[in-house]
Amino acid sequence: MPIRKHDPFKDPLEGLSSAVNPYLELLREGSKGALPLLYGPALAPYPGRWREHLSQAMGHVPEELILEIGSHLGEVILQMAADHPQRAFLGLDITFKRVVKMAQKARHLTKSNLTSILANAQGLEQLFAARELDGVIIFFPDPWAKKQRQTKNRLINAQFLTTLANKMTSEGWFWFKTDCEPYFSEVLAHAKALGWREESIGTSLPTQTYTSRFERHFRDLGLATYESVLRPPQDPRTPPSFPSVKINS
Ligand SMILES: C[S@@+](CC[C@H](N)C(=O)[O-])C[C@H]1O[C@@H](n2cnc3c(N)ncnc32)[C@H](O)[C@@H]1O
């Protein structure tokens, strides 16, 4: 069951009976400390204090803070968290079951450096303070491609990229993958207009191959996928230009 609320600090489970969905109880119990997961009002203290919060579980201040939006069952971010124990990771999704499943797996990480968050990414503005994120991953966001009028539902647009740029450190990176070429071109065009800079894959953190579940699915079907690593604008008043490149075909 997915949440629809955009305000991340409102309780998305409010008024829902555990009889409706078995994951509700796991979420409620998990958020009391049984699992590394957070949602609703419990998120409110953390904007601007994520590193401090995560350092309590990790035993040291994390070198970097990385967010994955649409983390699904956590395949990519669990591997990243295991590969980079000095860094802290947050996986965000709107689906009860996925958030619980990822938290159940994250519990076994030696460094306790991954927290699962139940929230809608439309609430990014409230969830993070300015310059708080070092890396952001969005792999295969829902393309809303079946009908032209649905494209307005896409998560990544000019407004979202503006918010994201504000939340990222100046050396931060945004790693985006999709199978939907029109969505890819649209995101690159918005990014270019806003002064984001495209960078070669593999020159920042994502040096390893992290293949997501959806990516494998599309590749198994022989379908093209597209990806880009983007750096936020240094000075939004003087946007540099960069070529729009199709990477995997
Ligand atoms: C198509 S799946 C891709 C999953 C995974 N990233 C991958 O590449 O295998 C999209 C994921 O994004 C989540 N999602 C969709 N809209 C979201 C939103 N507004 N905020 C957070 N997660 C969202 C879905 O629940 C789903 O897990």
Helices and strands, with pairings:
Layout: H1 22-34, E1 37-39, H2 50-58, E2 65-69, H3 75-83, E3 88-93, H4 96-106, E4 114-118, H5 124-127, E5 133-139, H6 158-167, E6 168-178, H7 181-194, E7 197-199, H8 213-220, E8 226-231
Parallel strand pairs: 1-4, 2-3, 2-5, 3-4, 5-6
Antiparallel strand pairs: 6-8, 7-8
Provide keyphrases for this structure:
249 residues; alpha/beta; Rossmann fold; 8-stranded mixed β-sheet; 18% strand; globular; binds S-adenosylmethionine
Write up this protein.
This protein is 31% helix and 18% strand. It has one domain (22-231): Rossmann fold, CATH 3.40.50. The protein is built from eight helices and eight strands. Mean pLDDT is 89; it is low at 237-249. It has helices at residues 22-34, 50-58, 75-83, 96-106, 124-127, 158-167, 181-194, 213-220; strands at residues 37-39, 65-69, 88-93, 114-118, 133-139, 168-178, 197-199, 226-231. The chain has 249 residues and is an alpha/beta fold. Helix 1 (22-34) runs parallel beside helix 4 (96-106). Strands 1-4-3-2-5-6-8-7 form an eight-stranded mixed β-sheet, sandwiched between helices. Helix 6 (158-167) links the parallel strand 5 (133-139) and strand 6. It starts with 21 loop residues before the first helix and ends in an 18-residue tail after the last strand. Bound molecules: S-adenosylmethionine. S-adenosylmethionine (SAM) is lined by residues 2, 69-70, 72, 92-95, 98, 120-122, 139-142, 155, 212-215. S-adenosylmethionine (SAM) binds next to strand 3 and helix 8.
